[in-house]
Specification:
By secondary structure, the chain is an alpha/beta fold. Helix content is 23%, strand content 32%.
């Protein structure tokens, strides 16, 4: 199954209720070529061999037919999902620019893709004592929409915004890649020496592991999106202490982790 059910705390018109949502599963896949680590990419389980082949082909690491290639699944995670594959191919068919010991993938949309091994990941804990009023989230996304000028012109960009606990917008950036927009916001905050003032990061696309990881690295305790989270995003948010909120639309949202950090003037109906 490439989807799983997750429990969330749904907020609508100043009331909370328990809901059970179906989320897309996200796992890390480590790809090796002739036993040498090549890259780690995030993916939805299934068709791992095709993913590895297509990635290597489009990155011009291999340019040959399937008859010359053998792809084996060499690892599974604790849930039984394939998380490692090895591509076997004659050395003379591997392009010279892949030495088997360096990162050759650089993606504008993925903060994790490009690592060579799953051991590259490090877990951190975001410390948070702040309490966020759920009603402020709608204000945040309104401000983002008002300032998303490139999207208004093209309809083709993502946006990320940084806010104080009271909903004051400190920074907004747009980019064709949602991870790039987040990186631009964090870089701008660092440049202006106000990263410590940020309590909430909003994003216009889905929340994947990479987005949670970026928020965690920056020490931002609240993460909100208009779209869905992946399973790994929720799992990592729970571990890191980040409050993850998704489907933030028209005074509604669903909290998937650390919900005790979000309150409203109305007593939670749970």
């Amino acid at each position: 199954m490439s989807v799983k059910k997750y429990e969330g705390l749904f907020y609508n018109n100043q009331k909370f209720s328990i809901v059970e949502d179906v989320l897309a599963v996200e796992v890390a896949l480590q790809i090796a070529v002739n036993g040498f680590p090549f890259s780690v990419t995030m993916q939805t389980p299934g068709n791992e061999k095709q993913l590895a082949l297509g990635l290597l082909f489009t990155e011009k690491i291999i340019q040959t037919t399937i008859e010359n290639i053998e792809i084996d699944s060499i690892g599974k995670n604790e849930e039984g999902y394939v998380n490692a594959v090895n591509v076997k191919i004659a050395p003379h068919l591997v392009l010279k620019d892949f030495a088997g010991n360096r990162n050759v993938i650089s993606s504008s949309s993925c903060g994790v893709c490009g690592k060579t091994a799953l051991d590259d990941f490090q877990e951190m804990k975001t410390t948070n004592k702040a309490i966020l009023d759920a009603a402020v989230i709608e204000k945040m996304f309104y401000l983002v929409d008002e300032n998303q000028k490139m999207f208004q012109q093209s309809g083709g960009t993502h946006a990320a915004g940084a806010f104080t606990i009271d909903g004051e917008m400190l920074c907004i950036h747009e980019d064709i890649g949602r991870h790039n927009a987040v990186d631009k916001v964090i870089g701008s905050l660092i440049q202006n020496n106000i990263l410590h003032e940020v309590k909430c990061l909003t994003v216009s696309g889905r929340i994947s592991y990479e987005i949670v990881n970026k928020a965690n690295e920056a020490g931002i305790p609240f993460l909100a999106s208009v779209s869905a989270p992946s399973t790994m995003a929720v799992d990592m948010a729970k571990k890191s202490g980040i409050t993850l909120m998704a489907f933030c639309r028209k005074n509604k949202l669903t909290i998937y982790s650390n919900s005790d950090q979000v309150q409203t003037l109305i007593q939670a109906n749970v």
